[in-house]
Amino acid sequence: MKSLRASMGITAFLIAMLLSFGATQAVAATSVSDVPVASSASESTKNFAKSNQSAVARAGHACGGNYQLASADPLPFGVDPKLRKGVLYNYVTPDSDSACAIFDNNTGVRQYMELTSCPGATLGGPNCSTDKGNFLQYAGPTYTSTKGPRGTCWVHKAYMQFVISQGVTYGKTC
Questions:
Q1: Whether the Cβ atoms of residue 128 and residue 115 lie closer than 8 Å to each other
Q2: What is the pLDDT of residue 69?
Q3: pLDDT digit string, tens, across residues 42-95
Q4: Strands (DSSP E) along the chain, which ranges?
Q5: pLDDT given at position 13
Q6: What residues are paired with 171 via a beta bridge?
Q7: Separation CA 47–CA 8 (nearest Å)
Q8: Alpha carbons 66 and 84: distance in angstroms, whole number
Q9: DSSP letters along 15-45, please?
């Protein structure tokens, strides 16, 4: 598989900006393992968390205390979960003042990865948080305020070299 990716010469990345509503108010949470899952999390996120408790707990602990899992997006989008290359985890505080992201490396080998989190609806600016480098386990955590310039919203961008990965926008439209 690794040689197939290398032979294909995939060096570019794809950024998809998807809007998803929710996780913008204080919410009750249910617990998966010892990391709470926000009640506003989608059913697919809740199911993913139940099936991947140790990974969800590890990523949640990397963010620190008081964060709830808001979403877990296996990447690249649309592939069989067994073929995923990474997972973009989005955690929020119960009062929704901040978000934390972890980009989990599921390839089993060290990969060049980038993870960026920004307040607002676009990437870039002085208030963004970025972690990049060659990682065996995960990129991050990155943190951002969920209070954008025109409302409550934030964006995370995930990139893994030689693997097509997507960025995802979480939260309410600004």
A1: no
A2: 93
A3: 999 999 999 999 999 899 999 988 899 999 988 887 777 778 899 999 999 887
A4: 29-32, 35-38, 68-75, 86-92, 98-105, 111-119, 129-135, 138-145, 147-148, 151-160, 168-171
A5: 26
A6: 153
A7: 33
A8: 28
A9: ----------S---EEEETTEEEETTS-HHH
Q: Which residues pair with 147 in a beta bridge?
A: 152
* CA atoms of 40 and 51, how far apart (whole Å): 18
Two structure tokens written together for 156 = 């995370």
Among left, alpha and beta (phi > 0; psi -120 to 50; other), residue 55 is alpha
Entry pTM: 0.76
* Residue 89, number of CB atoms within 10 A of its CB: 33
- Where does residue 109 rank: exposed (0-12), middle (13-18), buried (19+ CB within 10 A)? exposed
Closest CA to 142 of 163, 106, 167: 167
The CA distance from 86 to 4, in Å, is 18
CA end-to-end span of the chain: 41
Strands 86-92 and 98-105: antiparallel
